[in-house]
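Q: What structure does this chain adopt?
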Amino acid sequence: MVHVSADNRYRLYVNGVQVSSGPQRSDVTHWRYETIDLAPQLHAGRNVIAALVWNWGAARPVAQHSHRTGFLMQGNSPVEAALVNSGPAWKVLLDSAYAPIVITSRDMGNYYAAAPGDSIDGARYPWGWETPQYVDDAWSTAVIVGNVRRRAMPPGAYGEVSGWQLEPRSIPPMEEKEQRLARVRRAIGVQTDAAFLGGSGDLLIPARTYASILLDQSHTTNAYPVLETSGGAGSTVRLTYAEALVDAKGQKGNRNEIDGRTIRGVHDVFLPDGGGHRGFTTLYWRSFRYIQLDITTRDEPLRVHDLHGVFTAYPFAERGRFASDLSWLADMWRMNWNGARIGAFETYMDTPYWEQLQYVGDTRVQVLISLYVAGDDRLVRQAIEHFDFSRIPEGLTTSRYPSSLTQIIPPFSLIYVAMVHDYFMHRDDPAFVRARLAGIRGILDWYARHVDSTGMLGAMPYWNYVDWTPRWDRGVPPRADGGHSSTISLLYVYALERAAELEQVLGIRGAAADYRARAESMRAAIRARAWDSARGLFRDAPDTSAYSQQTNVLAILADAVPATMQRRVMERVLADTTLTPASYYFSFYVLEALRKAGLGDRYIERLAPWQTMLQLGLTSAPENPEPTRSDTHAWAAHPNYGLLATVLGVRPLSPGFRMVRIAPALGPLHRAEGRVPHPLGDIEVGFVREGERGLRADITLPRGLSGELVWHGQRRQLHEGRQVFSTSQSGYLTAK
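A:
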């Protein structure tokens, strides 16, 4: 048993077989290490433990924290420590074959914050270095560059904190499995039967030839590319990765079309040395649908034996499901789940191609998808912890974390409060939630300090982003910077109400009362200053004529609209085309307000944009409508949550999901069924309409779970096990 870590990252091999990679991404004060049993790879006689360690340096991703280059292996006992501890017993080689290909936002034409490309020179590479047969006599003796310690201080320590503060890994290893490219879409300068994509035949590039081959995975994915070649000394092999091709105007169009389109994007360069069966791969995975293989040979032909990917992502399993008599919803489910999967690695990511950063706004949506489809809460807890770690002395969280570049979006701190509340409702984990209360108090107190004499939020510093919409500069609602934004004031109320619930159950009841009082005072000020009785809507700010979906759905969610008026206001939000529209991201809040206002039966009709995504050939939900930078943005995958939580209607009835409420809103569907994972087991539901308002409901709850079924105002108690209800001729829902 050994403990392993590195800065920035490592891959660990025993006798040439990879046994671990990491460390789990975090910051220096919470640096992670893995614990690994090496025994399965050891055998009698000589064994070699080897590690590839890299530090991207100035080219590192924005999400990558670093102290300095280093590697740690520590045996779990004195016997193991004597055998394997890192230090002078190890040998080290600086691998001059590698060089980063720095990729800038200017190169990409939009904001890019992920890893650089790799340039690997086969003539300099120490082939076979990780195997027992390799002769390492010329390697240098490793030196100790610093000490590490676990975050828990030993008795008698003086509390100095510097360098890496180690914590054990808290999430499982990432999934890795072979993934074959689907097909060749275009070949220039060479003919191919595509056998090399299956590893069953060679692609031969003659000497002094340029060849370009466009490959299609058929869907967006994350994978380590693996290329095997022979010969071709002096050749150049370039792999370029893209989510979509673009036309002469830079437009993507239908993602399945390639005619008149070219590839632009992240790329790697491999330089074969002429040896036989050379295997090239990258330090870090790439995100793509298309790969273009550009090869230039010199005096030797090059044989490509194989090119495939090793798919990687957080190991979510698809436990949840949804099926209905509207067939295209199944296609949307697959598209959204693919995007949610590849938007999660060692953290949640806004976009696996462009940034790989864990933002609060995106992550709240991704958390709910994870809980409802996978039922796995480990990445959820880590994300909440990360944002708690990120808090600045003023009290706010940063907008994204881990991030070596600090960015402050104050409204995202309010979304963080809602995220903790989501976890509180879906998991019975009071100690974890209670540990977040101090941070939540700091956030809400920061906002309280910005309330001015109007009773609304005054001038606000930093970037007050709420939603990407063309009518709002940088996504900032009217008057958010200068003061008196209805939008952000309502978001503050939304967070206060959720924090009050947390304090009432787990914290200080006086704080709960204070939050409710603050919320009511703020609601009153917004109603007095921003409500337009003639239009029956809230203005985005008291002194503006701007109106938006964002402001008015927040007014419903924050109960600034009385319950008796919420349906009417929501209908206006949906019908009034002059309002600033919500983006794919903020439509999550639109659809939550739709359900709250009693219009859940209109949920399916609001999914038309996702039908358009499918018609465009998208295989994961994008960041924005066309033209979109990112083709994979899991904040737009939220309908998979909505199908389960609104259409099937499965939601917590009490904190910790100790009870369930099932209130289906089938809309145009005649039949719908599905499964929602629960900490006690799976919740299975099936609904069939009977006539105009009737329903047949078949529900199975796991052992220990009870709740209620709600249908057109009728409530029926639910118990563990299977139960069937049907509407009688008199219109009552009765058990069968």
